[in-house]
Backbone:
């Protein structure tokens, strides 16, 4: 190959390298060992806004003289930090440098540059050079700063939102605690019931009202099957069902039984919440302990009922006293009139047959007056607690039979059949006269109302009890009269047309005399027109005890 051709190829290679360097898209400067610019590609000249002659052969520290003195000083420090003590083969990235405007003086705003310096060894005997890549990173910086600011703004907004949420939660918790304190002070517990599952969310006070501790769980089944009083469950359930169906609230009072057996009264009020399809989803409400109020209410109700009963008793007593006064007037007047009439007849008459009959009438009416006076005196002694009994062993069957025989003529005069059932000896500890009075009053009472029927008397031993029964088939006793038949001055038939002779003291005295003998007396009737049965039970003396007493 000729020297001419070799020279041409060498020239082409040099040209091509220079053109390639100039065509690089990034801005490059090449500095010699004196930090003078020996090459500047087109990209650098365009970026810096300079012509080649303005930078070529000049020190890197003095180009771009349009910058302010402070920025020139900052640029010098930036270059020294990038180029200082850079050894061959080393690359170094410079820090950022900020310009107020474009370095060429034809731009506004801030610009940010960054450089990468690489020291290369010279070719052949040439001295090392520094290749300096200059980059305008303003857009990246602006975007990074904008992104940083956006992130900072988002972080600030997130912190603000969290702060607001925390403050709202704290305020809500404070309000909730205050509300719970107020509700607990008033013993008001709040609850919510899930209708589908039966689960209940309750406050501690709600559980306390039901006798439970705060950590215990509670549900609908436990309330109705365990805690609520059995007698109240159906009414409470019905009230809740009605409220759901009517989309209204309910209010109920019911009892709960605590573990220690204490019974408390609670009042619950609530309403249902519904889904969009109209089906009930849950119920919310509150429960309050009303035990003190209920106790006062029940107390005053009991007082009112007692006062009502007292008024009724008083009214019945007044009516009974009126009847008693009328009866006494009538019962005393009749025998007295008979005695006075027959006494007058004896004074004026001379017929001997009249004398005998008058004596009988006067004797009979005198005895009747005497019995009424005795009854009045005995009733006064019983009422004041001054009547006493002298107990001794006697045969109640024999005593009853004797009294019945004494009344047989009276029964025959009334066309009443008196039947005394055969009986075995029945020993009791009693006062003979008072026990006779009991039998006499029961039989006399039966004869009055038998109305030409029959009266049955029987005495039997029924276990530990000596039982005397007087049964008649007469007028009978109504259920309302049966309740007060043993009261003082009472008669089963108060109407004047049905009223029997007497003071209304007989059955009252029977009851009190039987009680003095540690016994009981009861009356039974199937109603008006169906007769009546009176049953007296006294403690019987067993055979072994009778033998011991005889010895």
Residues:
């Amino acid at each position: 190959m000729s020297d001419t051709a070799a020279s041409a190829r060498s020239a082409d290679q040099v040209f091509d390298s220079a053109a390639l360097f100039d065509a690089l898209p990034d801005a490059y400067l090449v500095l010699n060992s004196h930090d003078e610019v020996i090459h500047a590609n087109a990209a650098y000249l365009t970026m810096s806004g300079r012509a080649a002659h303005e930078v070529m052969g000049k020190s890197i520290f003095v180009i771009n003289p349009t910058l302010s003195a402070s920025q020139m000083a900052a640029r010098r420090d930036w270059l020294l930090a990038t180029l200082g003590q850079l050894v061959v083969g080393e690359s170094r990235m410079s820090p950022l440098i900020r310009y107020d405007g474009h370095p060429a003086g034809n731009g506004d705003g801030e610009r940010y540059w960054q450089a990468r310096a690489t020291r290369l060894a010279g070719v052949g005997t040439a001295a090392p050079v520094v290749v300096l890549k200059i980059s305008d990173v303003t857009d990246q910086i602006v975007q990074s700063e904008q992104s940083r600011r956006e992130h900072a703004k988002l972080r600030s907004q997130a912190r603000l939102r969290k702060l607001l949420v925390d403050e709202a939660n704290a305020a809500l918790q404070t309000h909730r605690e205050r509300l719970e304190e107020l509700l607990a002070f008033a013993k008001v517990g709040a609850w919510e019931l899930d209708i589908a599952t039966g689960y209940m969310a309750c406050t501690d006070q709600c559980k306390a009202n039901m006798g439970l501790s705060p950590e215990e769980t509670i549900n609908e089944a436990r309330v109705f099957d365990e805690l609520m009083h059995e007698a109240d469950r159906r009414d409470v359930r019905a009230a809740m069902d009605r409220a759901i169906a009517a989309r209204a609230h309910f209010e109920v009072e019911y009892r709960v039984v605590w573990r220690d057996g204490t019974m408390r009264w609670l009042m619950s009020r609530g309403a249902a919440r519904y889904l969009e399809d109209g089906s009930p989803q849950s119920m919310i409400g509150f429960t309050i302990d009303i035990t003190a109020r209920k106790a006062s209410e029940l107390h005053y109700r009991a007082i009112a009922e007692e006062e009502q009963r007292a008024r009724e008793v008083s009214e019945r007593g007044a009516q009974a006293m009126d009847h008693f006064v009328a009866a006494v007037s009538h019962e005393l007047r009749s025998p007295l009139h008979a005695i006075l009439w027959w006494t007058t007849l004896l004074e004026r008459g001379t017929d001997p047959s009249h004398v005998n009959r008058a004596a009988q009438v006067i004797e009979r009416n005198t005895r009747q007056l005497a019995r009424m006076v005795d009854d009045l005196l005995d009733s006064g002694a019983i009422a004041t607690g001054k009547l006493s009994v002298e107990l001794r062993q006697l045969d109640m069957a024999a005593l009853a039979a004797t009294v019945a025989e004494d009344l047989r003529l009276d029964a025959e005069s009334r066309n009443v059949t008196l039947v005394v059932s055969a009986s075995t000896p029945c020993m009791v500890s009693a006062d003979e006269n008072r026990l006779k009075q009991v039998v006499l009053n029961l039989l006399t009472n039966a004869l009055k109302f038998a109305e030409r029927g029959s009266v049955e008397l029987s005495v039997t031993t029924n276990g530990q009890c000596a039982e005397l029964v007087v049964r008649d088939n007469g007028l009978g006793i109504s259920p309302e009269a049966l309740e007060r038949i043993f009261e003082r001055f009472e008669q089963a038939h108060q109407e004047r047309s049905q009223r029997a002779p007497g003071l209304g003291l007989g059955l009252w005295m029977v009851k009190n005399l039987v009680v003095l003998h540690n016994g009981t007396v009861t009356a039974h009737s199937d109603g008006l027109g169906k007769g009546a049965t009176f049953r007296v039970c006294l403690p019987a003396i067993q055979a072994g005890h009778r033998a011991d007493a005889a010895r």
Summary: Residues 496-500 have pLDDT under 50 and may be disordered. The two ends are 177 Å apart (CA to CA). The chain has four domains: 3-136, 186-289, 298-385, 388-550.
